[in-house]
Delta-aminolevulinic acid dehydratase
Amino acid sequence: MELNMNSKEDFIVDKKNVLQSSIINSTLRDWQCLKCEITATNLMYPVFLIENDDDIQPIESMPGISRFGINKLRDHLEIQVCNGLKSILVFGVIETLPKDKIATHADSKANPVIKSLPLLRKWFPEVTIACDVCLCPYSESGHCGILNNDGSINNTASLKRIGEIALAYAKAGAHIVAPSDMMDGRIGAIKSILQAHNLLNKVAVLSYTAKFASSFYGPFRDAAKSKPAFGDRKCYQLPPGSSGLAIRAADRDVQEGADMLMVKPAMAYMDILKEVKDKYPHYPMFVYQVSGEYAMIYHAAQKGAFDLKLALMEILGSLRRAGADVIITYYTPFVLELIKGKSKL
Ligand code: PBG
């Protein structure tokens, strides 16, 4: 091939198209990263509520995280609210109340979430409260739905119960109910029961849209005392390799009237996060950085693999870039402290 006479000029023109001129100082660098900003509004903080109001129980599998009785949670949240906390996701954990086939204590008067919601609303009027809706912390099987005698899921009975529990949390003061059970049809069932009780326009539904059957929930099952007594959750949580089912789940949630969508876990599922957000840009998109991800990052930093602050902000920023509007993370208190007084890290 003959040498192109213009090649020298082409080379010079090419050289003008540099990237480094776009990142000459921190303001220019920030302009490249606006989609990745992390403010308090982008964070939701999961908390574990126990029966004994004055107890606090550190969770061994999640160093730095504890289960709180309501009085201890009050002290803990006061600090977070001063740092700008906007929203929490509440999980109930029972130890003395009995677990049974129909998860009676998911919505009984003795349930720690039901008891605490009016207090949380009164003490923290500026905090938006979401409640996880599921049977597994309260059912003797540890499964997320009601089972038939042969161990299979009874969908009709499960939807009825999940609807009742969601309604009870809504009546007790939850702004948001968040079903994490992955039963077919639960968004529609919850919307119907809210409608029947004139709460349709007063309570939002955050769907755990694409919740995968993941290894990363290990520490949570210890934290929430919700390990399945037998079997696994592969018949209702999505197979990790499947993006098709995740998109179908999002389509269905939207049809059934979900207000907000979620992908869970986070880091290993960022392609799903992006695909769902790209398909439904008008829905606030949540991603859950789950217990195993929390522990993984904690232990890696602890062993000196990286700096916790830098690595965490890189991960959270990347989740925002992939399409997350809100990140549910146990690191919320740490991040609020980091971003305090700064518009951005
Ligand atoms: C209950 C529920 C789980 C999580 C949130 N809600 C556990 C599970 O499905 O096994 C996981 C949260 C975490 O790992 O941080 N259905």
Summary: Strands lie at 43-49, 56-58, 66-68, 87-92, 128-133, 176-179, 204-211, 260-264, 285-289, 326-329. The domain at 41-339 is CATH 3.20.20.70 (TIM Barrel). Residues 132, 134, 136, 144, 180-181, 217, 220-221, 226, 290-291 surround PBG (CB under 6 Å).
